[in-house]
């Protein structure tokens, strides 16, 4: 229990080496990054929002929110914005279904 | 409220906006972070927020008394009472029923069976983490390494939501000085924080979840129904799963804290490239292993007092470290295995015997660790023995492992053999990007992960500790 640790093993991982970037306000830069990410997710990942609302306990407000989220999801899908996520998901499902050689799917042997 | 969920995402957005909006006042900032932490913790069970507050009061009051005590003997008495009180909280919630069950079995064995008052106590999430944090704070104040902190600071130290339920065990010496001034963001810590969050999300939601649901859980649920090959691959799979699960939590905790301007210490450092068990514990759950080293192993005498005492101290430290994980014999066996092998390593080194070639040493260490994980994961000692017996069953047909699962296992092991500073190198490039482009990249990564994630998110493994 007594080996000397190297600097990169001891420091916080968020302390990066070298000179910091000084331009602009870092908080504004962070805020814009997070806002853009959130907005892109709201548009291109609308199905996740809809699924999240549907998982909530059923109340009148939840029912209204569910309807709105489903409408939003349909609108984004019609605009083609959710297509990349759906295509990736379909490809992932194919990978999940793949088996070595002629092995049967798990649980069916 | 789990990190990889939309509930947490929305909670984080609200907390981020409010906390930075009041950052002109460090006190208000900390109060808001404290309230946010209680909301986060209360999402599991509001009753345990009271326990958290009571625990903070206990440690704040004890530290004040230590600080103001006039004699060293008085300080020692107070720190002892404080540590015992912390252990009392941990012992009651985590070990009360276990010890009573053992007592019941013992009495029954002696023909004196009794109905003992088992309480079916609900374990507060994260109690092992915040009690250890409280104890280290008290001991550091007693040792003169820390000043007694304000009630607000100690309560926030113990409640701060990124580390609250599954670590890292951020010590007062790491975080209290940061609470004394309003933190400032810089692009470096934000870029690395975002990278850690996305990376953690991938490891948890894709690698750990897929391995857990489709390989590890079915095999460990009924080892007798599976072939030797399934058992072997499930053991390897669990080694990858627990790394990807727990290191993911730590990565996300470190990343989330960074977005609020705070620095948490590293908790993992490619543990499966360790060339000995001692090396493994310098790379795995570093905040726990360093805690055990500083407050238990050294407290027991460390390597002072001769070889026999050193071996005893290693063994005791690892046994108690195992028991920290839960009130089960399997955790004690797991700790005993790690302690026993470290004792052998110590004796080997002291005897001046030649070490193994590095590649072989890494392979041997990984397999000892994987053997330990079988006890760690099994529901009982008998289940672990049945699992090990099944490994020798000789049926080498594959029933569960798919190309995807094999690929994820290889990927999870591959993470250990990338350059140690790879993530920092990527973050250094990300910090130079315009904010909209970085936002777009973060969103694209999350969409990619969301498309691959298993439906639903299981709690992190370390939530149960």
UniProtKB/TrEMBL annotation, chain A:
It comes from Rhizorhabdus histidinilytica. Keywords: Membrane, Transmembrane, Transmembrane helix. The chain crosses the membrane at residues 27-53. Residues 1-10 have a biased composition (Basic and acidic residues). Residues 1-20 are annotated as: Disordered. This is Uncharacterized protein. It comes from the Bacteria.
From TrEMBL, chain B:
The chain crosses the membrane at residues 78-96, 116-139, 151-173, 185-202, 359-376, 396-418, 430-449. It comes from the Bacteria. It is a multi-pass membrane protein. Pathway: Glycan biosynthesis; alginate biosynthesis. GO terms for biological process: alginic acid biosynthetic process. Pfam families: MBOAT (PF03062). One of its GO terms (molecular function) is acyltransferase activity. It is found in: Cell membrane. Its main location: membrane. Coiled coil: none annotated. GO terms for cellular component: plasma membrane. Keywords: Acyltransferase, Alginate biosynthesis, Cell membrane, Membrane, Transferase, Transmembrane, Transmembrane helix. Belongs to the membrane-bound acyltransferase family. This is Probable alginate O-acetylase AlgI. The lineage of its organism: Bacteria, Pseudomonadati, Pseudomonadota, Alphaproteobacteria, Sphingomonadales.
């Amino acid at each position: 229990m007594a080996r000397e640790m190297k600097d990169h093993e001891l420091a916080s991982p968020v302390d990066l080496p070298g000179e910091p970037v000084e331009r602009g306000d870092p908080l504004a830069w962070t805020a814009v990054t997070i806002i853009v990410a959130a907005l892109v997710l709201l548009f291109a990942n609308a199905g996740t929002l809809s699924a999240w609302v549907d998982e909530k306990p059923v109340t009148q407000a939840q029912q209204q929110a569910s309807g709105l989220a489903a409408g939003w999801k349909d609108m984004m899908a019609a605009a083609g914005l959710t297509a990349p996520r759906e295509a990736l998901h379909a490809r992932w499902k194919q990978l999940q279904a793949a088996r070595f050689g002629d092995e049967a799917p798990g649980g069916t042997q | 409220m789990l990190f990889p969920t939309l509930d947490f995402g929305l909670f984080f957005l609200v907390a981020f906006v409010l906390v930075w909006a009041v950052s002109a006042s460090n006190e208000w900032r900390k109060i808001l972070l404290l309230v946010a932490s209680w909301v986060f913790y209360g999402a599991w069970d509001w009753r345990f927020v009271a326990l958290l507050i009571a625990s903070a009061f206990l440690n704040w009051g004890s530290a004040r008394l230590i600080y103001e005590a006039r004699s060293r003997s008085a300080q020692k008495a107070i720190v002892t009472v404080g540590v015992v009180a912390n252990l009392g909280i941990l012992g009651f919630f985590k070990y009360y029923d276990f010890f009573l069950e053992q007592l019941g079995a013992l009495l029954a064995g002696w023909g004196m069976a009794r109905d003992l008052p088992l309480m079916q106590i609900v374990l507060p999430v994260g109690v092992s983490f915040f009690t250890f944090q409280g104890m280290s704070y008290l001991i550091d104040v007693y040792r003169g390494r820390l000043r007694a902190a304000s009630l607000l600071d100690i309560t926030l130290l113990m409640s701060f939501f990124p580390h609250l339920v599954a670590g890292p065990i951020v010590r007062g010496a790491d975080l209290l000085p940061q609470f004394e001034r309003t933190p400032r963001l810089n692009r470096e810590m934000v870029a690395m924080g975002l990278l850690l969050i996305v990376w953690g999300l991938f490891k948890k939601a894709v690698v750990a979840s897929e391995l857990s649901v489709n390989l590890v859980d079915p095999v460990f649920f009924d080892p007798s129904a599976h072939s030797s090959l399934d058992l072997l691959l499930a053991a390897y799979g669990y080694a990858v799963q627990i790394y990807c699960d727990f290191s993911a939590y730590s990565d996300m905790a470190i990343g989330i804290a960074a977005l609020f301007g705070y620095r948490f210490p590293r908790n993992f450092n490619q543990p499966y490239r360790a060339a000995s068990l001692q090396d493994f514990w310098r790379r795995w759950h570093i905040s726990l292993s360093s805690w055990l080293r500083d407050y238990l192993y050294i407290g027991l005498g460390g390597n002072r007092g001769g070889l026999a005492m050193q071996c005893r101290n290693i063994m005791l430290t690892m046994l108690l470290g195992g028991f920290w994980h839960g009130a089960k014999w399997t955790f004690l066996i797991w700790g005993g295995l790690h302690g026993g092998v470290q004792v052998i390593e110590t004796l080997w080194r002291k005897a001046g015997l030649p070490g193994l070639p590095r590649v072989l040493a890494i392979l041997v260490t990984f397999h000892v660790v994987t053997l330990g994980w079988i006890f760690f994961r099994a529901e009982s000692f008998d289940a672990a023995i049945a699992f090990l017996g099944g490994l020798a069953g000789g049926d080498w047909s594959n029933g569960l492992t798919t190309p995807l699962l094999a690929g994820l296992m290889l990927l999870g092991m591959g993470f250990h053999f990338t350059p140690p500073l790879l993530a920092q190198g990527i973050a250094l490039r990300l910090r130079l990007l315009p904010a909209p482009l970085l936002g777009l990249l973060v969103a694209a990564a999350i969409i990619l992960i969301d498309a691959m994630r298993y439906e639903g998110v299981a709690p992190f493994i370390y939530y149960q500790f």
